[in-house]
Design goal:
This protein is an alpha/beta fold. It has two domains: 2-41 and 116-243, 3-Layer(aba) Sandwich (Ribosomal Protein L4, Chain: A), CATH 3.40.1370.10; 44-112, no CATH class. It is built from ten helices and nine strands. The strands form two sheets. The chain has a six-stranded mixed β-sheet. Strands 3-4-5 form a three-stranded antiparallel β-sheet, with no helix packed on it.
């Protein structure tokens, strides 16, 4: 698949081959987003001492003061309210079937909410979301208002933009005026994939517009709400990163110092050493 490259003045400036092509897998996209959102879920639970915070207990032991043994009552735990001589007034407590007692099965803060997904499945989900973002029919079905020549890539001129008003003017020139209005009304608008820090700082202030690096793409950014087909604009530099032409620099392995070869001693010297 080849994408036409457009500059800030909406004129074509060559084309570039897009390296990713994957069938649409909404099930994998949904699983990948659930895994991402589960990591941000905050644990919650009841106080372990809830319903047990009272000072005086009533026990079921024989010959014990503050006891209810031999009175013919159920073994429900009770707490003492008042005392008149050796006569105690009590009420049921602690048990789940009593007023103000503990819950039978309270929520526990130790529960693990995180969901996991295999690396290969996550990679296929990201590639599937990228392919859906470049499908004009899927993008319009999601509600985006895009120009007729979509999809296309952005020229290096966009990477040099460092002001928000310049980015908005360039996007309006490309035909995304109505979609930017959707972003101002609270909907998710464009996603710009770039490696430029200046463009990232300038575009992230636009309502509804998100900016991401090609090395940090995930299903949640490409398909918000697990609905694939978000209108996405890739810069030519970010496409080279996806294709592996602009891979991150790796550390050069230092040459290991060669080990000293063992010097073989003559047989006569070995014999003398044994003696």
């Amino acid at each position: 698949m080849k994408l036409a490259i457009y500059n800030t003045k909406n004129s074509q400036n060559g084309d570039i081959a897009f390296p990713i092509s994957e069938p649409l897998r909404t099930d994998l996209i949904r699983r990948a987003i659930q895994a991402i959102r589960s990591r941000a879920r905050q644990a919650y639970g009841a106080d372990p001492r809830a319903g047990l915070k009272h000072s005086t207990n009533l026990r079921k032991r024989r010959r014990v003061y503050r006891g209810s043994y031999g009175i013919g009552i159920a073994r429900t735990p009770r707490k003492i309210l008042s005392r008149n001589g050796r006569r105690l007034n009590w009420v049921g407590a602690e048990a789940p079937n009593t007023v103000g007692g503990r819950r039978a099965h309270p929520a526990k803060a130790s529960k693990i909410w995180e969901r996991k997904i295999n690396k290969k499945e996550n990679r296929k989900a990201i590639n599937s979301a990228i392919t859906a973002a470049l499908d004009k029919e899927v993008v319009t079905t999601r509600g985006h208002i895009i120009p007729k020549n979509y999809p296309f890539a952005l020229d290096a001129d966009f990477d040099a933009l460092n002001k928000t008003k310049d980015v908005i003017a360039a996007l309006q020139t490309l035909g995304f005026s109505e979609d930017l209005v959707r972003g101002e009304n609270g909907a998710k608008s464009l996603l710009i994939v770039t490696e430029s820090e200046s463009l990232t700082k300038a575009a992230k202030n636009i309502p509804g517009v998100d900016v991401a690096s090609a090395r940090q793409l995930n299903a949640y950014v490409l398909a918000p709400g697990a609905h694939p087909g978000r209108a996405t604009l890739f810069t030519a530099q970010s496409i080279k990163v996806l294709s592996g032409e602009e891979a991150p620099a790796t550390k050069v392995a230092t040459k290991a110092t060669p080990k000293k070869a063992a010097v073989s001693k003559p047989k006569a010297v070995k014999a003398e050493a044994k003696k």
